[in-house]
Amino acid sequence: MTQRQLLLSGGALIAAALIGFYAGHSAHAKAGTAVDQTADAGTSALPSTFTVSAGALPNMQLHYASAALRPLIRDVPATGIVTYDALRLARIVPPARGRVESIDAVVGEQVQAGQRLAVLDNFELSAARSSVASAKASVTQAQSQLAAATAALRRAEDLVRSGGMAQSELDTRRAAAAAAAANLRTQQATLQQGQDQLAQLMPIEPGSAPATPGLPDPRDSEGAIVAPFAGVVDSVALSAGQMVDPSQPVFTVADLSSVWVPLQVPENQIGAVQIGDPVAITTDAYPGRVFTGQVSYIADQVDPNTGTIMVRCIVPNQDGALRVDMFVNGTIESALGRQGVLVPSSALQDINGQSVVFSPAGNGRFTWHAVQPGLSTGDDTQILSGVTAGTPVVTDGSYWLKATLMQSTIPDEG
Fold first, then answer.
1. HSE-up of 164 (CA within 13 Å, CB side)?
2. How far is it, in rounded angstroms, from Cα 200 to Cα 223?
3. Number of domains in the chain
4. Is 253 within 8 Å of 152 (Cβ atoms)?
5. 245 shares its domain with 269
6. What local confidence, expressed as pLDDT, does residue 119 receive?
């Protein structure tokens, strides 16, 4: 075979291969188009309205709702751990230096406002009492001096009018009366200062309450440490006989009727969160129970280790069910500032890859609508197209309508 013949033969083989490749590719493309068209046809071939038999309809237990135009809410999920409300947490220090005589509260105990936590032998109380007693005596003496000076002044005024005393003597007695009045005011101020100091050292007046265990009694005149508000004793840092002073807290009392829940929100979702947004808190400790609160603070920095931002929420906790350090799940409901058509998520069904909802058409008949779902918020889903506000839809039980519709497309072989 000549060189020319070899070249011609090779060219023919290449041409044949190319023709085969393009033919196969064209056939495959046509087959793919046919598959897509078949899928579309599968949805479009469904009857727009179908009927459920009168016997089957009650067994489906269908529920109904209407598509509604409502504000759109974006749910931002996050996790967190319950902490104390720092505004309801008191670290109590002794009113003065002294020795602990008795302790009347233990960790975990519920206490009331003003309840005695401990009795203190207050070393400063005796000095304060002596100071007050001295100040009272000085006030009494100053009052007597003022009374005498005032009486002398009045006699001098009578004598001057009758000519029995010179005017200069009257002026002298008037000055003496003024000095006595000034001295009385000074002594009264000193007494008030001493009484204020005594009140700080002895916050409960003796005999102000009955001698009931844990409540104020006459011993409190020795120096009581009391609860500033109702709450739970979280820590006790003293023992009987111990010397204490105001430099260190000896009790911590927490009011757990409100707690803080710092939620860790992913950085890419923080833009939707605002102070004041409502939040729903759940925990495995109480299945099915939802605690509600609101966002009170959004941190200014991102945690570089987790890529999250701390969002603090205030959650009412009147029954004390939420415990400190309890792990919780939170959902922040952030308003998007616009409205949308919403239907219950249970109304949505998938048919051949297309989301649909069913509407009652009367007399056991139902119509399906192809819809485009949007944002999911809580138990609802936004509908971008397919139904309008006010359209009635089937919610619970819609799966049975889907099964009935699909069954209607199966050929009867009987």
1. 6
2. 10
3. 3
4. no
5. no
6. 87
Average pLDDT, the chain: 82
The ranges of the chain with pLDDT < 70 are 1-44, 123, 125-126, 200-222, 409-414
Check residue 44 and give its pLDDT.
62
Torsion of CA 352, 356, 362, 365, to 10 degrees: 0
**Looking up tokens 């495959």, which residue turns up?**
28
Residues in the chain: 414
Amino acid at position 147, single letter: A
Q: Which domain holds residue 385?
A: 49-72+339-407
Q: Which residue, 337, 360, 384, sits at the end of a domain?
A: 337
User: CB within 8 A of 344, min separation 6: which ones?
Assistant: 65, 379, 380, 381, 393, 395
Please give the pLDDT value at position 314: 97
Same domain (yes/no): 99, 230? yes
pTM exceeding 0.70: no
What would the DSSP string read from start to end of 270-298? GGG--TT-EEEEE-TTSTT--EEEEEEEE
Report the DSSP beta bridge partners of residue 117: none
Token readout for 214 is: 């844990």
Long-range contacts of 218-222 (CB under 8 A, 24+ apart): 219/101, 219/119, 220/116, 220/119, 221/125, 222/101, 222/119, 222/120, 222/121, 222/122, 222/125
Inter-CA distances, 68 with 65, 151, 162, 355, 388, Å: 9, 90, 102, 18, 8
CATH number at residue 160: 2.40.50.100
Nearest Cα residue to 379 out of 337, 403, 348, 336: 348
